[in-house]
C-alpha cells in the first residue's frame, strides 16, 4: 500500500547540483517511483510546480540566485491554504536555527546530506501518505458539499411548495371568513330593508294621490336608496351563498355567452371610447368547447364583471380578448386586457368583498360575486397580472355530462284572487305582506306563530300559505310539513332571512314549495305567488 503511494506520486526535485538530482532520481526509481522531475535552476521551481503539480517537493537549501528559503516563499503564495503539499528539505546544514527558519517557511521535514537512502524513502512515504489522505478527505468533502447542496435545494423546493399551499389555504380561509361575515351583515340588513322598501312602495301610490311633489321626491329617494342597498345585499349574498341542490343548471355554450356579453357590454366600451377619445377594442378567440352545466344569467354576470374591470383598467385604451378553450375535463374562459395590471398583493386580494382600488368609484363586490358564482359552479379562477402590462382572468368550468336541464321559471302576475294565510312572529312583516297582497286583490289572514296558523288553517279555507322560517315554538319548515299533512295540495311559500341553515344545507325542504329570500319586494312576492300557484295547479294559472 505504501509502495503504491510512491508509484502514484509525482515528485519534484530542486537542487543546483546535477549529480544530486540524478542520485535522487535513481533512489526513487528503485523504490518504484517513475514520475519524477528535477531542476537545477531554483528560479524555475515555481514554474515547474505550477506545470507539474507534484505531490511532494524535495528542496535543497543552498543554491545560487534563489536559495531554498526564497523558493519556499514563492511556493507559499502559489499553494492554496487548503492544500497539503509537503516540502522535504535536503541540507548539510542542520543547525537548529536553519531548522527553525525552514519550518517557518513551510518545510515539513528534513533529511541531512549525505543522504541515508532508506531513511529518505521512508520519510517521503510518510509524507505522501499524509498528502494522499488529505486529497481523499478533500474529495469526500466536495462530495458531501454536493450532497448537502442537492438536499438543500430539494428542501427549499419543498418549503416553497408548502408555502404556496399555505398561502392558498389562508386565502381560501380568509374568503370564507369574509363570506360568513358578509352573510351576517346581509342577514341583519335584510329585515331593515324589507321594511324600508315595503312601506316605501306602499306609501308611493298614496303620496301620488295626496302628497306634495316634494314629499314624493323624498320618498323616491328613500326607495331608490333602499333598492341600491338591496342590490348590495343581494350581491353579498351572491358571494357567500353556498350551492343548493335545486339550482337551475342547464347545458350552456360558453361561446354563446361570450358573444352575448361582448355585444351587451359594447355601449360601455364603445361609449367610453367615443366620450374620452380613447380606443378600446374587444376581440374574441372562441374555439369549439364542450357545454357546461350552468346558470346562464350568472355566467353572463361573471363575464360582464370581468369586461367592466378590464375597461376600468385601460384608461388610455387597449385591447380586451375574450377566449374559450377546450380542456381535458372542461372549458377555460379567459379575459385578457392590456391595462394597468395589478401588484402581487392586489392580485392576492382582489377577490375579497369590498376590496377595491377605485376609491368611491368601486364597490369591490364585482370579483367577490364572480368568485361566489364560479365556486358554486364547481370551477376555479386563476389570475395572472403584471403591473403596467395587463391582466388575464382564466376561469375553468367542468364540462357537463348531462344534456337535460331545468327551464327557468316564468315571471308573470297571477290573474285571479287568492285567500292567503300569512305567518310571521313580527307583526310588521305580516302587515307589510298583507298590504302587498291585498293591493293585488288577494284576501289575507295573519298568524303570529305556527300553532295559531294551524288553528286558523284547520277552520278556514286558504289557497296559499306564506310563512317565515325563524319563529319561536315552530319554525316555517315544521309548519309547512303540518300544513301538507292536512292539505297536501296547498302551496307553502317559505320566507327566509339570508343565512338560515336551511339555505346552507341546500335542497328544498319537504313541505315547502318555494323559498323566498328577504327582503321581499312587491315584484318578488308577485313572482313567488305566481310560481307557487303554477306549481300547485299548472292549468289554472295559465295567463
Ligand atoms: P371594483 O371594480 O368595484 O373595484 P372588483 O371586485 O370588480 O371591484 O375588483 C376589485 C379590484 O381588483 C379592483 O379595484 C382592481 O384593483 C382589481 N382588478 C380587477 N380586475 C382588474 C383588471 N382587469 N386589471 C387590473 N386590476 C383589476
Ligand atoms: Mg369591478
Query: pLDDT under 50 segments (min length 5)?
Result: 403-412, 539-543
Number of strands: 17
Strand residue percentage: 15-25%
CATH architecture of the largest domain: 2-Layer Sandwich
Terminus-to-terminus distance: 109 Å
- Average pLDDT: 86
CATH topology of the largest domain: the name is Heat Shock Protein 90
| CATH superfamily caption of the largest domain | Histidine kinase-like ATPase, C-terminal domain
Strand order of the largest sheet: 2-1-3-4-5
In this entry the ligands are: adenosine-5'-diphosphate, magnesium ion
Shape: rod-shaped
Number of self-contained structural domains: 4
Given this structure, which CATH class of the largest domain is correct? Alpha Beta
Which class of secondary structure composition applies to the elements? alpha/beta
The biggest beta sheet reads: 5 strands, parallel
Percent helix, as a range, is 40-55%
Q: What is the CA-based Rg, rounded?
A: 45 Å
Provide structural commentary.
With 543 residues, this protein is of the alpha/beta class. The protein has 4 domains: 2-115, Response regulator (Rossmann fold); 142-237; 250-398, Heat Shock Protein 90; 419-542, 3-Layer(aba) Sandwich (Rossmann fold), CATH 3.40.50.2300. Helices cover 52% and strands 17% of the residues. It contains 17 helices and 17 strands. A 5-stranded parallel beta sheet has the order 2-1-3-4-5, with helices on both faces. The chain has a 5-stranded mixed beta sheet with strand order 7-9-10-12-11, with helices on one face. A hairpin with a 3-residue loop joins strand 9 and strand 10 (330-337). Helix 6 runs antiparallel to helix 7 and helix 6 (117-210) packs across helix 13. It is rod-shaped. The structure holds adenosine-5'-diphosphate (ADP) and magnesium ion (MG). Magnesium ion binds next to helix 10.
Amino acid at each position: 500500500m505504501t509502495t503504491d503511494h510512491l508509484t502514484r506520486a509525482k515528485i519534484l526535485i530542486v537542487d543546483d547540483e546535477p549529480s544530486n538530482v540524478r542520485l535522487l532520481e535513481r533512489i526513487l526509481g528503485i523504490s518504484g517511483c517513475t514520475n519524477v522531475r528535477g531542476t537545477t535552476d531554483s528560479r524555475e521551481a515555481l514554474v515547474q510546480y505550477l506545470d507539474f503539480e507534484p505531490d511532494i517537493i524535495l528542496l535543497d537549501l543552498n543554491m545560487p540566485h534563489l536559495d531554498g528559503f526564497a523558493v519556499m516563499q514563492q511556493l507559499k503564495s502559489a499553494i492554496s491554504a487548503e492544500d497539503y503539499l509537503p516540502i522535504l528539505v535536503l541540507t548539510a546544514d542542520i543547525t537548529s536555527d536553519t531548522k527553525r527558519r525552514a519550518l517557518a517557511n513551510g518545510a515539513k521535514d528534513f533529511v541531512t546530506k549525505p543522504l541515508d537512502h532508506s531513511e529518505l524513502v521512508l520519510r517521503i512515504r510518510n509524507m505522501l501518505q499524509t498528502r494522499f489522505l488529505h486529497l481523499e478527505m478533500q474529495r469526500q468533502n466536495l462530495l458531501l458539499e454536493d450532497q448537502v447542496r442537492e438536499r438543500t435545494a430539494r428542501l427549499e423546493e419543498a418549503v416553497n411548495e408548502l408555502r404556496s399551499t399555505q398561502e392558498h389555504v389562508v386565502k381560501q380561509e380568509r374568503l370564507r371568513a369574509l363570506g360568513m361575515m358578509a352573510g351576517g351583515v346581509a342577514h341583519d340588513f335584510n329585515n331593515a330593508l324589507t321594511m324600508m322598501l315595503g312601506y316605501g312602495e306602499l306609501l308611493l301610490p298614496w303620496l301620488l294621490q295626496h302628497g306634495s311633489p316634494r314629499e314624493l321626491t323624498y320618498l323616491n329617494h328613500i326607495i331608490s336608496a333602499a333598492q341600491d342597498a338591496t342590490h348590495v345585499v343581494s350581491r353579498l349574498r351572491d358571494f357567500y351563498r353556498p350551492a343548493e341542490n335545486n339550482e337551475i343548471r342547464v347545458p350552456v355554450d360558453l361561446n354563446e355567452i361570450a358573444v352575448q356579453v361582448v355585444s351587451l357590454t359594447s355601449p360601455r366600451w364603445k361609449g367610453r371610447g367615443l366620450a374620452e377619445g380613447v380606443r378600446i377594442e374587444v376581440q374574441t378567440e372562441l374555439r369549439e368547447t364542450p357545454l357546461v352545466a350552468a346558470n346562464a344569467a350568472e355566467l353572463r354576470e361573471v363575464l360582464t364583471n370581468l369586461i367592466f374591470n378590464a375597461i376600468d383598467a385601460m384608461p388610455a385604451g387597449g385591447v380586451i380578448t375574450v377566449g374559450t378553450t377546450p380542456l381535458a375535463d372542461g372549458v377555460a374562459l379567459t379575459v385578457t386586457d392590456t391595462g394597468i395590471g395589478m401588484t402581487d398583493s392586489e392580485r392576492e386580494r382582489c377577490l375579497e368583498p369590498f376590496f377595491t382600488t377605485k376609491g368611491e368609484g368601486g364597490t369591490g363586490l364585482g370579483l367577490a360575486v364572480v368568485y361566489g358564482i364560479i365556486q358554486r359552479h364547481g370551477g376555479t379562477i386563476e389570475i395572472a397580472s403584471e403591473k403596467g402590462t395587463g391582466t388575464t382572468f382564466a376561469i375553468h368550468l367542468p364540462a357537463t355530462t348531462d344534456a337535460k336541464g331545468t327551464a327557468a321559471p316564468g315571471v308573470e302576475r297571477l290573474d285571479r284572487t287568492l285567500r292567503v294565510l300569512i305567518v310571521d312572529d313580527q307583526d310588521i312583516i305580516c302587515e307589510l305582506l298583507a298590504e302587498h297582497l291585498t293591493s293585488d286583490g288577494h284576501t289575507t289572514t295573519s298568524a303570529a306563530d305556527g300553532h295559531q296558523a294551524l288553528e286558523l288553517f284547520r277552520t278556514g279555507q286558504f289557497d296559499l300559505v306564506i310563512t317565515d322560517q325563524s319563529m319561536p315554538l315552530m319554525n316555517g319548515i315544521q309548519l309547512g310539513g303540518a300544513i301538507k299533512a292536512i292539505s297536501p295540495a296547498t302551496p307553502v311559500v317559505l320566507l327566509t332571512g339570508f343565512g338560515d341553515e336551511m339555505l346552507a344545507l341546500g335542497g328544498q325542504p319537504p313541505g315547502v314549495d318555494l323559498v323566498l329570500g328577504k327582503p321581499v319586494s312587491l315584484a318578488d312576492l308577485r313572482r313567488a305567488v305566481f310560481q307557487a300557484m303554477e306549481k300547485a295547479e299548472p292549468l289554472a294559472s295559465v295567463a
